[in-house]
Amino acid sequence: MLVSLVWTRLRAAAADMYNPHQSSDGSAWCGWTMEWTKEHTFMLIELYQSHPVLWDPTDPTYKNKVKKLDAWRSISQALAVERAEVEKKMKTLIGQFRREQKKRNTKSGAGTDDAYISTWFAFNSMKFLLTRNRPHPTNNCGIRVSSSASYLIAMVLGSD
Q1: Based on the structure, what is the number of domains in the chain?
Q2: DSSP output for 22-34
Q3: What DSSP character marks residue 137?
Q4: Is 112 contained in some domain?
Q5: CB 56 within 8 A of CB 132
Q6: First-to-final CA distance of the chain
Q7: If DSSP codes are grouped into helix, strand and coil, which group holds residue 145?
Q8: Residues 66-86: pLDDT tens digits?
């Protein structure tokens, strides 16, 4: 009896969170889409941030497709949402974040009173993405020059 009650409540909660989705012309049923609340969206952003393999190019495993897939699976399991739905929502959020950033950056030349201030609810939560495309200092480019090449370079440049 208790299991039946819990199952009924879970189905009701799922029915509230998910809506059937038809194609744009209304001709075909495409599946279920989740209605993302702000709370769920913030949870998704936090989980995404906790997996730098998905967003940080300096992460050693950034190019490892298996690690990325594992990270997406972990996020989807934590949220109890299909992986494709989670990826789609995150892609949408990143796109909106980029648009908000562009608005801030296009206000160059404007006074401080005219600077764009984003009112988008998730903007501050996604600021961690601002560091992902910045160049990082390097110590050594890894190119080794043989002694004969060094001699030729010295000869061309005229140094002893």
Answers
A1: 1
A2: E-TTSSSEEEEEE
A3: P
A4: no
A5: yes
A6: 91
A7: coil
A8: 999 999 999 999 999 999 999
